[in-house]
Amino acid sequence: MSFPRYPKYKASGVEWLGDLPAHWHSGCLKYLATIKPGYAFSSDNFVGEGIPVLRIGDITPDGTVDFTDARCLPLEQGTAHADVLVVRGDIVMAMTGATIGKAGWYDSDRPALLNQRVCIFRSIAPNEQRYLWHILRARFYAEHITLAAVGGAQPNISDSQLLQCVVPLPPGPEQIAIAAFLDRETLKIDALVAEQRRLVELLKEKRRAVISHAVTQGLNPHAPMKPSGIEWLGDVPEHWEVTRFKRIAELIDGDRSSAYPSDQDIVDEGIPFLSSKNIVGYKFFNTGLRFITQEKFDALSRGKILDNDLAITVRGTIGQVAIYDAKLLGHPTAFINAQMMIMRPIGVTSSFVYSISESHYWQKQLDVASYGTAQQQLSNAILQNIFVVLPPAKERDEISIFLVTELAKFDEAQRAIELLQERRTALISAAVTGQIDVRGLPPAR
Q1: Average pLDDT of span 252-262
Q2: Strand arrangement, sheet containing 51-54
Q3: What is the pLDDT, as a whole number, of residue 199?
Q4: Quick one: which of 333, 315, 337, 314 has its CA closest to 324?
């Protein structure tokens, strides 16, 4: 759908804004909003239940705030620190780290406190808070943060720098109209994203079937077969070897000693402390990262994951596997939490180990061998003795190449989600900079 433009424009004098509608103004964000940075609460005061303390990791990539795993302080702290109390309709934003600039709309009736390196945005005019929300999600504002932030792997930005960005300032009624338009249109896009995510879930089983056939039957349909000796595995190519997983990967438990990080050891910058929440699309990403200090990391003896290692979840939701990409995370190493174990390939590629871990025959063994009633678990010994089918090196490479091509077809569904999200960002940017005129558009049906 195409949208009309304003009849007349003028130069804004700001490169990233370009031309603005002739009757609009521009100015620093401080004319539109106020900011309040969070507070460095002492971890000694955290309790099991109370008032949540929001951290960077509690802001989701979808622009919401999830404090399911938030640490808490006694309720009376809410009165003592009312200046950093977050309430419904507030906007919170990360001020440091790989997800700097990530914003979330607080949509809960349960008040929360704000931890350091996160800030609260509030519009000076309360009825323009939704316009402010869309400004903070516009592409030009993300670019401002990138340019203004200081630091390398862990960039930082101050509250004053956040307010220095020059933004469009249309008349108040137009701000409200733009916000209403974007609320309506982004809701449609979000519905499409949700539908596409459901499709991704449906395709997961087909994806696993493709992987399973490749790593147990090979790519040559005419290859002579032999009994694997394992009832539920059936026949495998005659020249393939049936062996144990310990032959192709070293299994490394995490450090579960008294040195294991507690809530008091969590900091805003440092060495990543990985959990399954950081797994996105079979790899570790920066989503919701938590950190420990270098000193705490050095005190740990095991559980230190390296580039191209894999980690597997071994408690609760078992069998979820991800490859650690040091370049992607911006850290050469990290520490895994108590629900994970490291799988370090021996003589095979990470992608081949990953493919095995996605197969039906691997999952079948995990289901049979896991233990625990309230919570499923896997031990190092169990994983070491999982049966795997090992093709010759040349065929392993051929299978890996084949799977890259085949799985790309399934990844198109995930790519569609990314394109929809890009479209949402582009639409927001166009509306808040006046590149489209929403004033005369018909109301939502």
Answers
A1: 89
A2: 71-73, 51-54, 112-114, 85-86
A3: 87
A4: 333
